[in-house]
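Weekly sync, protein design subgroup
Attendees: M.S., D.O., the rotation student, P.L. (late)

Item 1: inverse folding check
M.S. brought a backbone from last month's batch and wanted to see whether the design step gives back something sensible before we order anything. D.O. pointed out we never logged the input encoding, so this time it goes straight into the notes. Structure tokens as presented (436 positions):
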């Protein structure tokens, strides 16, 4: 699952806990028998917590069965996300760590407009955690429409995500409508008529709604279809459940990945697009054991392709995809030959010239794009590119490209350092400790 933005349909604001923004239900975990403590092992530190009480009201009084999704930003080793259900009194109480920098709450129930509250210590200039918080859920209204192909035929099985244009309220704990009406695991699926609908949309003409569509035989939406991006659907059409969204057939791309000797390179990571990390739809596939890959349908025109395979230098190229008028399903074959990699070594030191062990080393850019990455995050697959220095503060990547790569080096307790570009060879990087 990919993370999603807090502000704006097109802006992508990424944080490690952003999955919570989708308001998806976190599956409960089966408790496992604790492992026996090792001899002379000190007991695990007890995390100090405090209770937070959430009350949910409806038009007719307390609402039972409301899902409260909570997410915390904390230095403590504490589960960042959890779900809780209100009781017959519309209440639920749960624990959060004593020290919290951000607390976020989402309230959702079928048939009601979902709500969101953001408590940020910076915005509130102090402790952001309330002892008690009340949500009021209003009954939702129905919006819907149809998904069709270029010929007007219905597309069954299309995935439809729905969001509402909401202005965030700055992290001061003021409740607002949750912009994600159907997202991720909670997205909608069109029926045999290509029809979809949701019943949790806020009432009123002041709201505008955005859609994002996915289907295995058509071009997936990268951004959101909204009034801001020129989408033809209107709020009136959605409320009348007559709005029509058209998906293109696109161009189907496939090809082979080979090494310098012409032999297939198995399990290469194939990435399309400029910025896959900040797109919540997947933009990566793995080649098979014979080096063959196949991408979902892509929009005609220039498309960036990036190949990453352990032991070989990454490759980047621009494909020119053409949708031939006489081809019902245009296809494009794009073969890529990889070359031997080079070695980039970074010696990361502090201001006194001492090594900084286990410093993080993340790729910030390559050839002006961000399609090459070494993040370990649910947004993207693990590319196997090293992302950390060793005990001596030495970072080594033995299959790097022959040109410059932009790196961001960091470690907790040190000042932020702007990304710097390095090519093959050995380079020194200095991180300065934060001043107290």
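Designed sequence read out in the meeting:
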């Amino acid at each position: 699952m990919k993370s999603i933005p807090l502000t704006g349909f097109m802006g992508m604001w990424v944080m490690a806990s952003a999955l919570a923004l989708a308001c998806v239900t976190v599956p409960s975990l089966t408790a496992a028998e604790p492992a026996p403590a090792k001899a002379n092992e000190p007991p695990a530190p007890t995390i100090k917590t405090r209770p937070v009480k959430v009350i949910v009201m409806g038009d007719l009084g307390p609402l039972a069965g409301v899902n409260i999704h909570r997410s915390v930003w904390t230095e403590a080793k504490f589960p960042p996300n959890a779900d809780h259900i209100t009781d017959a009194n519309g209440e639920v109480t749960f624990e959060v760590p004593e020290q919290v920098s951000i607390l976020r709450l989402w309230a959702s129930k079928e048939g009601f407009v979902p709500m969101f509250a953001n408590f940020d210590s910076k915005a509130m200039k102090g402790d952001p955690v309330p002892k008690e918080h009340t949500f009021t859920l209003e009954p939702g209204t129905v919006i819907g429409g149809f998904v069709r192909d270029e010929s007007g035929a219905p597309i069954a099985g299309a995935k439809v995500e729905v969001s509402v244009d909401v202005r965030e309220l700055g992290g001061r704990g003021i409740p607002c409508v949750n912009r994600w009406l159907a997202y991720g695991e909670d997205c909608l699926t069109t029926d045999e008529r290509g029809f979809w609908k949701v019943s949790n949309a806020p009432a009123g003409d002041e709201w505008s709604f955005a859609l994002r569509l996915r289907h295995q035989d058509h071009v997936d939406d990268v951004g959101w279809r909204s009034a801001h991006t020129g989408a033809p659907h209107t709020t009136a059409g959605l409320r009348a459940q007559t709005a029509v969204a058209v998906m293109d057939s696109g161009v189907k791309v496939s090809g082979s990945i080979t090494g310098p000797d012409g032999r297939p390179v198995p399990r290469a990571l194939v990435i399309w697009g400029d910025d896959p990390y900040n797109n919540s739809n997947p933009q990566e596939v793995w080649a098979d054991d014979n080096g063959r890959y196949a991408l979902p349908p892509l929009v005609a025109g220039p498309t960036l392709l990036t190949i990453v395979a352990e032991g070989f230098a990454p490759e980047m190229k621009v494909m020119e995809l053409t949708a031939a008028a006489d081809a019902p399903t245009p296809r494009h074959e794009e073969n890529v030959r990889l070359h031997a990699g080079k070695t980039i070594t970074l010696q990361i030191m502090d201001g006194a010239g001492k090594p900084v062990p286990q410093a993080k080393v993340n790729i910030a850019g390559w050839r002006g794009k961000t399609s090459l990455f070494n993040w370990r995050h649910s947004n993207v697959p693990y590319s196997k590119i090293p992302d950390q220095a060793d005990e001596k503060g030495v970072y080594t990547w033995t299959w790097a490209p022959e040109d410059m790569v932009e790196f961001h080096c960091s470690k907790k307790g040190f000042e932020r350092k702007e990304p710097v570009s390095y090519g093959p060879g050995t380079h020194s990087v200095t991180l300065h400790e934060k001043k107290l």
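Discussion: The radius of gyration is 25 Å. The longest helix spans residues 235-239.
Action: P.L. to compare against the previous round before Friday.
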